[in-house]
Amino acid sequence: MTATTITSVKQQMIETSDQNSPEPHCRCAISASVGSMIVKQVYLIATLVLTLCGCSQKAQPTWKPMLDGGHHVGIDGVSIFAFGYNHDPDRSIVFFFPLDISSSGDHSSNAESRTFDYSGTITSSPSKKTVLSYRISSTDPTKVTCNNADYRLSDGTVFYVAKDGAITQLPFAGLGPTKEYVSDLQAYVDSNRPEPTNPEGNEP
Asked: For the region Disordered, what residue ranges are annotated (predicted)?
């Protein structure tokens, strides 16, 4: 075999080898695909480990206003209207009335700004005479406005509202609104005959 023939054969072998080799962009595509598979596997393993060990992030609790939407309970010609504390359902802001009542209110709350504003009126039933207007707001949740006068909740969260709208703030915390509690408040009022309270800023 001549030198020229040998050289020709070598050249053909080199060209054949180049044709069988993957192009550079093919090698890049293969590497990217393998890398993506590895990332997915690592993510799946990490998720499984977090789930098994209980390390997954807990969802944040949903915000609620300080008070619930209000409850009306009446028996034997006496009634209460109460707002329960959402963080302590056994405690309430309570309005006690020696009569049957109807209620209407405008209650709003905003979870994004974490604000609430409750206002409304209580009327005698069936005469529809207004005996109480109220407002409780996140602007100052330490007080309640009753018949255009402010009362500090630190002095008590139970209010006796007479038929003429006179208000007596009783010096204890309100409990959950039940029929038994209505009876207990009735017994307390009958025994103590509470006098109307001077609202905040109007002490004699």
From this structure: 1-20
